[in-house]
Write a structure and sequence with these properties.
Layout (H helix, E strand, L loop, with lengths): L1 E10 L2 E7 L4 E5 L6 H13 L19 E10 L7 E10 L6 E4 L2 E2 L12 E4 L5 H4 L2 H15 L1 H27 L4 H41 L5 E6 L7 H7 L1 H7 L10 E6 L2 E2 H4 L2 H22 L5 E5 L7 H13 L5 E5 L2 H9 L5 E7 L2 E3 L1
Helix pairs in contact: 3-4, 4-5, 4-7, 5-9
């Protein structure tokens, strides 16, 4: 799958913009804060119906404006098992505070979830290291992002679970505020959580089991086998009946006014040489670890989706030693990553990639929301 053209209107620091891309490699060069990352985010938005940073759309629209519009032309090439090609125009029309519209070939989706997974995408950004150093939410987001692009059943169950969880938490807060309690209402919410939770748990467990060896291989390639790494899945549903856990934690939930058990508490344990990464990993190891996670995510999507994902790589070489930079460049060149987008502040590093790249490429200079090819 490839994006051939992109048009932006009032998106972040771009008043307007029109880009025609290479089908293989696209490099954006410029100083920090010029708008390189915003171009990657625009592509991501058209694929996933939201900014990769998870921010409110009010923080995406250009300053002083009240709307933004994105238009992308995608060539969707099915893999070898399903050989076909189709061209699709995807448009995002967004006015913060109003219902966003995502259109495919001039027809609006009734539900945004109908679009997720049609245009697979992986984005790698410097903040990915927060997956290792911050709380479990970032690691669950990684699981959800991958599985939602592959499995509509997973996405539907995730939406249902989060909706019921929000209702249950709201009820718990109301009980505390009014000094009341309705056990029957909680029983209803508990029953509604059970089925989607089980689906989410089983699919996450199955995914991590299949993902671990792929991730380990990528880390070995980036680090030249300097360290041993692992990634394991933890969930309270491994420990027994979720229904029993909800009953046992009810008093605790009432006190804390939130649901304290369930798949919304699941986590991934990141280890390097059998130690927790967040405690013992260096900056270079942290960066290598999350790069391996994201490249493995790409490989997993590619093997399990009907078309190749787009790979977006934002300032990925910072905080990597020269050896790991060379290993990563070689990995990008040797592996078939389809259409790749790279941003960097150092033109020399971009030239190093381009001079070893044997197929089509384009290089863009970005300055203050303006582009020169």
């Amino acid at each position: 799958m490839k994006i051939q053209q992109l048009r932006l209107t009032h998106f972040k620091n771009y008043e307007t913009g029109h880009f025609v891309f290479s089908e293989r490699l696209n490099c954006f060069v410029g100083k920090n804060g010029m708008g390189k990352t915003n171009l990657l985010d625009a592509i991501y938005y058209l694929c996933m119906c939201k900014s990769h940073k998870g921010v409110n759309d009010r923080n995406v629209v250009q300053h002083t404006m009240d709307f933004f519009r994105l238009e992308g032309y995608f060539l969707i090439e099915k893999n070898e098992e399903v050989k076909s090609k189709s061209k699709n125009k995807i448009v995002a029309k967004v006015q913060p505070g109003k219902k966003k519209e995502i259109e495919k070939d001039d027809v609006a989706y009734q539900k945004l979830s109908e679009h997720i997974g049609m245009l697979p995408v992986v984005i790698i950004v410097p903040d990915d290291t927060f997956m290792a150093t911050d709380g479990s939410e970032e690691r669950r987001r990684f699981l959800d992002n991958t599985l939602s692009q592959l499995d509509i059943e997973y996405l539907k169950n995730l939406i249902t679970y989060n909706k019921v969880l929000k209702q249950r938490n709201s009820a718990l807060k109301k009980f505390a505020e009014t000094r009341s309690f309705n056990a029957e209402l909680l029983d209803i919410y508990d029953q509604q959580l059970l089925e989607p939770a089980q689906v989410i748990f089983e699919k996450r467990k199955e995914f991590v089991d299949a993902f671990r060896p792929v991730f380990k291989d990528f880390y070995q390639a980036i680090s030249s086998g300097q360290e041993q790494v692992d990634c394991t899945y933890s969930s309270s549903l491994k420990e027994g009946s979720f229904a029993d856990q909800l009953k046992e934690s009810r008093e605790k939930d009432k006190i804390l006014t939130r649901t304290t058990c369930g798949v919304h508490k699941d986590d991934l344990a990141f280890r390097i040489d059998k130690h927790l990464l967040r405690k013992f990993g260096s900056q270079g190891q942290l960066k290598s670890y999350v790069l391996a996670l994201k490249l493995a995510q790409y490989d997993f999507l590619k093997k399990n989706h009907s078309s190749n994902p787009i790979l977006l790589m934002d300032d990925i070489f910072d905080k990597l030693d020269e050896g790991r930079v060379q290993q990563l460049i070689q990995l990008i060149l040797e592996k078939n990553f389809g259409q790749v987008f790279i941003t960097d502040t150092h033109e020399n590093r971009v030239e190093e990639i381009i001079k070893n790249f044997e197929t089509d490429y384009k290089k863009f200079y970005i300055e203050n929301g303006e582009c020169k090819e």
